[in-house]
């Protein structure tokens, strides 16, 4: 690690210690301090007019983008679980989401689609986007985002079968490194599909197209 990085780490540690003092802590205080260090790292003039309030703006946005911690699917779903009235499949397609990749803390965004055969329970339709947002507003990898959505729905309503697909574009790929602008990444997970017929499985997949 070079000296400059070591120095930044030390400054961050000092800033963190200062910010965790209970009398001075403000929501996102650590993020304000971190943004100031990032501006230093970019060799920017922190006193120029355009940057004066940037650390506070950054912190506010960052805290919002990471607001999925300390909440559970049960918190965001609330009363939105109902008795299933039939056995027909439920599909919620192309729920838009915005997240941050945990490797670069750069945005990735896309669409999540869910299809399931209910058991005894169904979820209110607006609750699936809330579960997607809950996990998108954490530092993520796309695979875990996909698995977490499925796991929460299984946990809440124990569907007979479920497929979750996520398609996303990653700024860390688009802006740096391989710079593949047009590429998107698809991830998928299935749960409980052993108990359904081949025809039902095909219908589940077809409903996501
Ligand atoms: Zn990344």
Structure description:
The chain is an alpha+beta fold. The strands form two sheets. It has a five-stranded mixed sheet with strand order 5-2-3-6-7, sandwiched between helices. It has a two-stranded antiparallel ribbon with strand order 1-4. The longest helix is centred in the first third of the chain and has 17 residues. The structure holds zinc ion. Zinc ion binds next to loops.
Major beta sheet, strand line-up: 5-2-3-6-7
Q: Determine the structural class based on helices, strands and strand pairing.
A: alpha+beta
Cofactors, ions, other ligands: zinc ion
The N- to C-terminal Cα distance equals 48 Å
CATH superfamily of the largest domain: GTP cyclohydrolase I, C-terminal domain/NADPH-dependent 7-cyano-7-deazaguanine reductase, N-terminal domain
Largest sheet: 5 strands, mixed
CATH class of the largest domain reads Alpha Beta
CATH architecture descriptor name of the largest domain: 2-Layer Sandwich
Specify the number of helices.
8
- Could you list the spans in which at least 5 consecutive residues all have pLDDT below 50? 20-25
Mean pLDDT: 89
């Amino acid at each position: 690690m070079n000296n400059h990085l070591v120095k930044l780490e030390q400054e961050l540690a000092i800033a963190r210690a200062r910010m965790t003092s209970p009398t001075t802590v403000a929501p996102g205080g650590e993020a304000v301090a971190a943004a100031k260090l990032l501006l230093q790292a970019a060799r920017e003039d922190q006193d120029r007019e355009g940057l004066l309030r940037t650390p506070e703006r950054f912190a506010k946005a960052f805290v919002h983008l990471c607001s999925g911690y300390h909440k559970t699917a049960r918190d965001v779903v609330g009363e939105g679980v109902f008795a299933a009235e039939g056995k027909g499949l439920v599909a919620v397609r192309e729920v838009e989401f915005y997240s941050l990749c945990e490797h670069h803390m750069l945005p990735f965004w896309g669409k999540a689609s869910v299809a399931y055969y209910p058991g005894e329970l169904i979820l209110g339709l607006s609750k699936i986007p809330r579960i997607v947002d809950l996990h998108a507003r954490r530092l993520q990898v796309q695979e875990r985002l996909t698995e977490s959505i499925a796991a929460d729905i299984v946990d809440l309503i124990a569907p007979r079968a479920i497929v979750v697909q996520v398609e996303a574009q990653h700024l860390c790929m688009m802006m740096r490194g391989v710079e593949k602008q047009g590429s998107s990444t698809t991830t998928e997970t299935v749960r409980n599909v052993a108990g359904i017929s081949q025809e039902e499985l095909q219908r589940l997949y077809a409903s996501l197209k």
